């Protein structure tokens, strides 16, 4: 199925041609509860093109989908294909112009394209023949173009995989399209090489493509393989992140924020986030949706909620006990062992916000930087307590360590798992 976290309230557009690839993609979207706007174009390239569009329209009607068809015969004369024009170039320009129109009209969050693994391998081998660079072959499942977020969810599927999927799932498509394309637009590379590869040959070629196409492969892996330890996950290192290509930068960010499906990044966001990462400010936040933000703490990014919101605040008037949903403490005998003196009371105990700083070895350091250095789990950063004296100065931030054994005589227990 499609590896993408969808927002059920968002609108998505799917490019569909009634061929085996795009119909498989549409079926996968439907099985995941996504009802995209179906965008189609009748180029009138084949005798059966109009019949395909009619059958696609009937399919969409039966499924209750919005179907938007562009008939190239209805184009103004200056937009028609003329003698001497390249069909490939003309069709591509027409196609993306149509997508952009619909993207704006429906305020879409992403455009889904049915490019599959054979397309990728063909482009790679063609580039090798022409001795061209292979960096920009559309390897990334997520990219941007003309203010649109493009998702290619089928790059892990071969043409044969998708044909088998259609048959097994009773997905309608026109099998004649494949033979027609073989006779007209598909290259000898596709017909004579890729179609005859076994699984081992295909895997070797894909690995070769990945190694040659992106010099930042190691950086991508360092980001995509975010620490496996659940308690230490949830951070992106900024330096390798900004070294990525444009598409890989976008892809990495989309996957990073998709732990919250309602957060949908736009191409404009990617440019702003890159600038946010590169600016001289060592700490800051980039606001997203529903109170979430990308939080910058020196050389890492985290995704957090309400980073500038005081979630709770309690006052301990005199040395004593306090039990709250976030922590419990017993300072009845004082807390000098934590650097808290009787003159500091009444104490205010609350969560940290981004502007909070504490003096360490004579220098004021952001509290949130300490959290990052301590590898504190993201969910704990939202509720971890800090202590302020009667003057409002932060005088104590409990140290976080994994498997930490308490050594203080005064008692403080953080209630883990509180959100």
Set out the fold topology.
Elements: E1 12-15, H1 20-31, E2 37-42, H2 49-63, E3 67-71, H3 87-105, E4 110-112, H4 117-129, E5 142-145, E6 148-151, H5 159-168, H6 176-184, H7 188-193, H8 199-213, H9 217-224, E7 235-237, H10 238-242, H11 246-257, H12 267-278, E8 283-287, E9 292-297, E10 300-305, E11 313-316, E12 321-323, E13 327-330, E14 347-351, E15 357-360, E16 363-366, H13 367-373, H14 378-381, E17 385-388, E18 394-396, E19 411-414
Parallel strand pairs: 1-2, 1-4, 2-3, 4-6
Antiparallel strand pairs: 5-6, 7-10, 8-9, 9-10, 11-14, 12-13, 13-19, 14-17, 15-16, 17-18
Strand coverage percent: 15-25%
Count of DSSP-assigned helices: 14
- Low-confidence regions: 215-233
Shape: elongated
**Average pLDDT reading:** 84
What is the CA-atom radius of gyration, in angstroms?
Answer: 28 Å
Q: Structural class, judged by helices and strands?
A: alpha+beta
Instruction: Please tally the β strands and state the result.
Output: 19
Quick one: biggest sheet? 6 strands, mixed
- State the end-to-end distance: 31 Å
Strand order of the largest sheet: 3-2-1-4-6-5
Question: What share of the residues lie within helices?
Answer: 25-40%
Describe this structure in a few short sentences.
This protein is an alpha+beta fold and 419 residues long.
Structure description:
The protein is an alpha+beta fold. The chain is 35% helix and 19% strand. It contains 14 helices and 19 strands. It has helices at residues 20-31, 49-63, 87-105, 117-129, 159-168, 176-184, 188-193, 199-213, 217-224, 238-242, 246-257, 267-278, 367-373, 378-381; strands at 12-15, 37-42, 67-71, 110-112, 142-145, 148-151, 235-237, 283-287, 292-297, 300-305, 313-316, 321-323, 327-330, 347-351, 357-360, 363-366, 385-388, 394-396, 411-414. Strands 3-2-1-4-6-5 form a six-stranded mixed sheet, sandwiched between helices. Helix 1 (20-31) packs across helix 5. The longest helix has 19 residues, at 87-105. The two termini are 31 Å apart. Mean pLDDT is 84; it is low at 215-233.
């Amino acid at each position: 199925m499609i590896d993408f976290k969808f927002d059920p309230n968002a609108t998505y557009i799917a490019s569909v041609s009634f061929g085996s690839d795009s119909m498989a993609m549409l079926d996968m979207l439907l099985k995941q509860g996504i009802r995209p706007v179906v965008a189609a174009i009748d180029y009138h390239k084949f005798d059966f093109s109009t019949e395909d569009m009619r059958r696609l329209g009937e399919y969409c009607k039966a499924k209750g989908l919005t179907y938007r068809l562009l008939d190239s015969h209805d184009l103004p004369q200056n937009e028609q294909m003329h003698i001497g024009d390249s069909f490939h170039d003309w069709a591509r320009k027409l196609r993306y112009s149509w997508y952009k129109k619909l993207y704006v009209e429906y305020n879409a969050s992403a455009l889904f394209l049915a490019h599959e693994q054979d397309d990728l391998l063909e482009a790679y081998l063609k580039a090798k023949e022409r001795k061209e660079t292979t960096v920009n072959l559309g390897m990334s499942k997520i990219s941007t173009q003309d203010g649109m977020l493009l998702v290619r969810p089928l790059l892990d599927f071969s043409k044969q995989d998708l044909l088998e999927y259609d048959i097994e799932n009773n997905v309608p498509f026109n099998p004649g399209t494949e033979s027609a394309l073989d006779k007209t637009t598909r290259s000898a590379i596709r017909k004579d090489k890729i179609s005859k590869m076994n699984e081992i040959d295909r895997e070797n070629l894909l690995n070769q493509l990945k190694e040659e196409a992106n010099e930042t492969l190691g950086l991508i892996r360092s980001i995509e393989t975010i620490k496996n330890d659940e308690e230490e996950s949830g951070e992106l290192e900024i330096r390798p992140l900004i070294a990525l290509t444009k598409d890989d930068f976008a892809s990495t960010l989309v996957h990073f924020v998709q732990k919250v499906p309602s957060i949908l990044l736009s191409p404009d966001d990617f440019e702003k986030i890159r600038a946010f990462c590169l600016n001289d400010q060592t700490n800051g936040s980039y606001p997203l949706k529903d109170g979430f933000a990308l939080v910058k703490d020196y050389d890492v990014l985290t995704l957090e909620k309400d980073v500038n919101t005081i979630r709770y605040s309690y006052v301990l008037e005199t040395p004593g006990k306090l039990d709250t949903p976030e922590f419990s403490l017993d300072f009845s005998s004082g807390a000098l062992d934590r650097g808290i003196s009787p003159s500091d009371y009444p104490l205010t105990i609350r969560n940290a916000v981004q502007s909070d700083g504490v003096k360490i070895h004579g220098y004021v350091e952001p509290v949130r930087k300490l959290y990052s250095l301590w590898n504190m789990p993201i969910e704990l950063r939202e509720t971890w307590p800090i202590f302020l004296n009667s003057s409002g100065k932060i005088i104590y931030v409990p140290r976080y360590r994994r498997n930490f054994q308490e050594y203080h005589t005064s008692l403080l227990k953080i209630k883990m798992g509180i959100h």
